[in-house]
């Protein structure tokens, strides 16, 4: 079984192949400009290999030479960003079918600002003649507990299973309503969308507290505290179960290591709380280190989540790839977003065996600014750009993502979260103008 994944920028280095394994397999596919090397298909880490590639310029290489070059090339120096455009997965086992010259993609706008930023995506895609037909499902987490909302949720699951691909806003989960599981969590568990990837990197031209931030947060999506297993045993006493399994810990660890190898990443850090949760997080940590034995070219370490949070805001440059259970991923993704401009500029990707769902990397609903035309649509637009790379529509993805980053870097049209005064419509218009100017 082979998988794909959204990744990063700068030329990757693919290490020399290791011992062969007859059960391993890989589907070779390039989404932007091909990298200069690729790991051998018989390598152990290819059993669940994630084909990754991201924004930036690369050297074009013939596909047939990639395996040969991998063993011969000792290193590649990362190049500066020439153009930022998120790439994503290419995976034959669930790549959508094209009907009538268009792909059908599930669109779940979500709650809060979801409808507004989804409209920006639709406007931009239409202007660029992107060959996508949206199958929109207006499921909401606000009006839960009634038959209509449950039916819409089931419809969204069916749509994603049918189309294999979705673009999704964030669904609201009421804090005060007990007995109701988050639709966001339920969707990931139902479809086994097990890996969340959030890429945290400085945007050229947009000054933040720290420079040279370039890290990736990989989050196990389906278990941990988000299992939703809690109850009140007696009045005033609540028990909440945290589920950690060796199988899913190993799966996400392999995912993280494969991601690192495919992207010239040198270090993978396991984030945990094994000093207190010795069995649950202890299992996650020990499984991580056991899996790491199959990846001797990578530096590995682990860090307690408390310290990792502090280190992320004081010295984020020390991190490369970070892999962690569900709850810690939610916390550190938001910390990471704050380092580079906030939740409005960080896109994300969620990968499963059969379905890929793209959504903003930080799961903010934005109910407080709903309908005020103040939302930053960048994260949703860039998530859409990642989706286009998944489909192999690189030309469209390049134009759209470059226009977004050019508008942000130029500084004339920024939404309030980035220190500007532009409305959602004005930002979208500026992106369209950049795209038109580039033609």
Automatic annotation (TrEMBL):
SUPFAM superfamilies named in the record: Isocitrate/Isopropylmalate dehydrogenase-like
SMART domains noted in UniProt: Iso_dh (SM01329)
GO CC annotations, alphabetized: isocitrate dehydrogenase complex (NAD+); mitochondrial nucleoid; mitochondrion
Catalyzed chemical reaction(s): D-threo-isocitrate + NAD(+) = 2-oxoglutarate + CO2 + NADH
Residue stretches making up the Isopropylmalate dehydrogenase-like domain: 104-431
Pfam families: Iso_dh (PF00180)
Entry's Gene Ontology BP terms: isocitrate metabolic process; tricarboxylic acid cycle
Gene3D superfamilies attached to this UniProt entry: Isopropylmalate Dehydrogenase
Gene Ontology MF terms: isocitrate dehydrogenase (NAD+) activity; magnesium ion binding; NAD binding
Assigned EC number: 1.1.1.41
Domain of life: Eukaryota
Swiss-Prot/TrEMBL keywords: Magnesium, Mitochondrion, Transit peptide, Tricarboxylic acid cycle
Enzyme class of the recorded protein, top EC level: oxidoreductase
Subcellular localization, as worded in the UniProt entry: Mitochondrion
Family membership: Belongs to the isocitrate and isopropylmalate dehydrogenases family.
Subunit composition and interactions: Octamer of two non-identical subunits IDH1 and IDH2.
Protein's name in the database: Isocitrate dehydrogenase [NAD] subunit 1, mitochondrial
Protein species of origin: Emericella nidulans (strain FGSC A4 / ATCC 38163 / CBS 112.46 / NRRL 194 / M139) (Aspergillus nidulans)
Classification of source organism: Eukaryota, Fungi, Dikarya, Ascomycota, Pezizomycotina
């Amino acid at each position: 079984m082979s998988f794909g994944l959204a990744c990063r920028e700068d030329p990757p280095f693919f290490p020399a192949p290791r011992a062969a394994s007859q059960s391993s397999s890989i589907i070779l596919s390039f989404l932007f400009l091909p990298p200069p090397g690729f790991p051998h298909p018989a390598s152990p880490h290819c059993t669940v290999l994630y084909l990754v590639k991201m924004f930036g310029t690369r050297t074009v290489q013939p596909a047939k030479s990639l395996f040969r070059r991998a063993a011969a090339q000792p290193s590649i120096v990362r190049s500066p960003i020439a153009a930022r455009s998120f790439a994503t997965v290419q995976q034959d086992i669930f790549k959508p079918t094209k009907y009538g010259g268009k792909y059908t993609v599930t669109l779940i706008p979500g709650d809060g600002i979801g409808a507004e930023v989804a409209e920006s995506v639709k406007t931009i895609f239409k202007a660029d003649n992107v060959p996508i037909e949206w199958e929109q499902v207006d499921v909401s987490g606000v009006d839960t507990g009634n038959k209509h909302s449950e039916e819409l949720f089931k419809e969204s699951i069916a749509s994603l299973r049918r189309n294999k691909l979705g673009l999704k806003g964030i669904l609201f989960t009421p804090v005060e309503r007990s007995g109701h599981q988050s639709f966001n969590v339920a969707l990931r568990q139902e479809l086994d969308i097990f890996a969340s990837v959030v890429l945290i990197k400085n945007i050229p031209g947009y000054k933040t507290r720290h420079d040279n931030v370039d890290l990736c947060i990989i989050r196990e999506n389906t278990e941990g505290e988000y299992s939703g297993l809690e109850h009140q045993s007696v009045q005033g006493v609540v028990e909440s179960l945290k589920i950690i399994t060796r199988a899913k810990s190993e799966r996400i660890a392999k995912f993280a290591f494969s991601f690192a190898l495919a992207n010239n990443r040198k270090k993978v850090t396991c984030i945990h709380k094994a000093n207190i949760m010795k069995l649950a997080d202890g299992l996650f940590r020990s499984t991580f280190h056991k899996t790491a034995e199959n990846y001797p070219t990578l530096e590995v370490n682990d860090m307690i989540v408390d310290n990792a949070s502090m280190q992320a805001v004081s010295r984020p440059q020390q991190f490369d790839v970070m892999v962690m259970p569900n709850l810690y991923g939610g916390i550190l993704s938001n910390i990471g977003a704050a380092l580079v401009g906030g939740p409005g500029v960080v896109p994300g990707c969620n990968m499963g065996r059969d379905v890929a769902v793209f959504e903003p990397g930080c799961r903010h609903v934005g109910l407080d600014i709903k309908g005020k035309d103040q939302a930053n649509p960048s994260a949703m637009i860039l998530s859409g750009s990642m989706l286009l790379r998944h489909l192999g529509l690189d030309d469209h993805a390049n134009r759209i993502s470059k226009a977004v980053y050019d508008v942000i870097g130029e500084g004339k049209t920024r939404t309030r979260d980035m220190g500007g005064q532009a409305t959602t419509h004005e930002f979208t218009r500026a992106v369209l103008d950049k795209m038109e100017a580039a033609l």
